[in-house]
Automatic annotation (TrEMBL):
Residue span(s) of domain FecR N-terminal: 16-56
InterPro entries, A to Z: FecR, FecR_N, Ferrdict_sens_TM
Domain of life: Bacteria
Listed Gene3D superfamilies: 2.60.120.1440
Domain FecR protein: 114-209
GO molecular function annotations of the record: sigma factor antagonist activity
The protein, known as: DUF4880 domain-containing protein
Amino acid sequence: MSTFRGERQLDPQALEEAAEWLIRMSEGELADGERSEWERWQVSTPERHRAWARAQLLQSKLGGLPPTLAMSALDRPRSPERRAALGKLAVLLAVVPAGWGSWKLIEAQQWSADYRTAVGQRRELNLADGSQVTLNTATAIDVLFDANQRLIHLREGEILVQTAADNTPQSRPFLVSTRQGLMQALGTRFTVRELDERTHLAVLEGAVRIELADRKDVAPLIINAGQQTDFSSRHFGRAIPADASVSAWSQGMLMADNLRLADFVEELARYRSGFLRCHPAVADLRISGAFPINDTQRTLNMLVQTYPVVATGRLSGYWVTLYPA
């Protein structure tokens, strides 16, 4: 999750309070007493002052609150809907300015795609040619089968592909495209993950041929079974041995083998709505094990029971931080 470049993360409590004030203001004009209370609040500590600066930036970018957040809060001061709205808004404040643009882009990509999954959801598809595609969390794809090709365009997220032979006379190639390039399956099973500015490919069976999107003059690269690589639109990464657990998510598991807690938390956050982070004091703690992604709260409980960390939640679980025990 993005934050201001070079700026430390804000206190979750200050962001929650700023979110509450934004929602109260969206409901109508503050009374004189409320306005005085708000003025005292925003100058009472540096953290609150910075949190309100984020709130003002968000307002200037949007011209107000996202309607779905504001509507959830109306006339329900203690309702679950209001708590959910506060949680979403506090997370949004944490990632302004880059976060809103990313949120809108992903939202647009997800809802206009042929097939999609929500955060924490997986979906299995059987395509017309007998191939199978599994969508990981927060994934969006388009599928185009015509007389010349079988194409999957990965807009966002991660997929596991098991190709089938094409029984048409044309023997159409099976292709997967991302913003960074075009991959052709050579009788294979593989995973593709769309990252910010690169694509991650891991080949489990067969081989995959890659062409870069912006460098047609560069010869294609073939990745064989048991290998993985990252590539941008202009450069190939090195082919290295594939992580044995790269497709564990398709079985509902997140695997860790002597993994930094910070890296594990970053992966787990993909399967959980809201904001999940760990304190720098435990970021380098090494963990191992198999953890369920279908129940992220259970995974957090397993971490707390096994390692010297505690999980502190705010905003009805929307904001969770792991601290030293």
